[in-house]
Hints:
The protein folds into three domains: 7-27 and 131-243 and 379-445, 3-Layer(aba) Sandwich (Rossmann fold); 45-113; 248-372 and 451-464, Response regulator (Rossmann fold, 3-Layer(aba) Sandwich), CATH 3.40.50. Helices cover 40% and strands 14% of the residues. The chain is built from 16 helices and 15 strands. It has helices spanning 10-20, 45-57, 62-77, 81-90, 97-107, 154-170, 187-199, 211-218, 248-261, 275-290, 307-310, 325-337, 358-361, 373-377, 385-391, 399-421, and strands at residues 142-147, 177-182, 204-206, 227-229, 242-243, 266-271, 294-300, 318-322, 345-347, 368-371, 427-428, 433-436, 442-445, 447-452, 455-458. A five-stranded parallel beta sheet has the order 2-1-3-4-5. Helix 6 (154-170) links the parallel strand 1 (142-147) and strand 2 (177-182).
Amino acid sequence: MSRMPHRSRASTWIVIAASAALLLGGCATMAPTSSVTAPVESRNTQVQQARELAQAGAALSGAARSDSDRQIERLLSGLDNATLAAEAARLPAGDPLYNYAGRALLRRGLPLPRPFDRGEAWRFDAGNRPPADRDGYRPPVKVAMLLPLSGSMAAATAPVRDGFLAGYYGETRRRPEIVFYDTQGNAGGTLSAYERAAAEGSDFVVGPLGRDEVSALFNRAELPVPVLALNRGTVAPPSGHASFSLAPEDEGIAAAEFLLERNARRVLVITGDDESQRRAVASLRERLAERGALVTDSVGEGTADLAPFAQKEGGVDAVFIATRGSAARTLMPKLALAGLAGKPRVATSQLLAGTGKPAEDRVLDGIAFPGETWTLRGTRGLPSAASAAAMLPTAKGPAARLFAFGFDAWQLTAYLERLATTADGAVEGATGVLRMDGFGVVQRTPAWSTFSGGVAVPLADAARR
């Protein structure tokens, strides 16, 4: 059994444990290993430039390193899928460009030609653990959960914690001891909690949850215990540590790749004004620009007439909608009047917010959006979303996304060594397919969905309704 401080919350966790005991064990699935091409020197000018930047970037830090990384990404983004895959396979072992090229492949849902170049640190100190099972399951011995159990972020913590415990108690194989530490939602509390966890013998840390907390931890001079942070900080994970998040930027990148695959080069953006919407739009704009496409205009969700934007020289190939579903419903007649109803329409996952009445949501039919595998298709190791919501309030409504995120954090904890050391490592998670890039960042390929008859369904199933 887990040892869990903060005993005033013990009754809540007993309920969670009893509910989660009904679940099946988690499972990671691995894609087939692709063949490796012998390294050959590239003659591609973009690749040569990117390689020079990657070699020089090893000596950089801070803003200079970030600028160099962005230049490398822009150069690689200009390559089509076949060229990118071929050039990655040509890079010799140890070439600093390989981790960048591999990350670009993962973001496009393409296989790696070989594992990322990593040192022993990326085994996450797994040497003290029992051997891995055949599927790569090798959880730590003692896990410290660093979460804001008190303060303003406590409400967001609950579904993440409960999703993690659902996966944990649903697993029938060896499980680690778990100890919870309260970060209090601030940098000082996080660093103190980490020091306590290390001193008390934890061999793996999950958390913290806040962006500022993650930044404070990753800026620490020494991190003797490996970390899986549950957000993305302002700095990359140090060597031998990882981060996992539901960042809006990832949805913008995923939407851009989705549109580019459908040859949409000129995209009209309609957006709300909250921070996550702005971040998704910014990443979409940047990725489109890197791939030779563009955002023609970015207009607010309250814009009365969209026709002037649709009629600009060059036209519009697709529409990106970064709004809640309730606002998106009011946009559909405007898109029709502007002659854009037949164009591909892609949204963020916020499209689901404010929906749930099929008669009203039929107007959203045909819009593609990234969602959680669990809520629309189901996930092995979890009951249906409806069943979980009936058992746990933290798996209901908007909290379901964070519950799925917590479940995936458990999956990553158990399979992280496999993801870090193989070319084909992937976890079929509740939030999507999870892989880890060469910089310790978990890359998530979401499950694409759409509305059909006013009901959210997997995109591939829409034609059968």
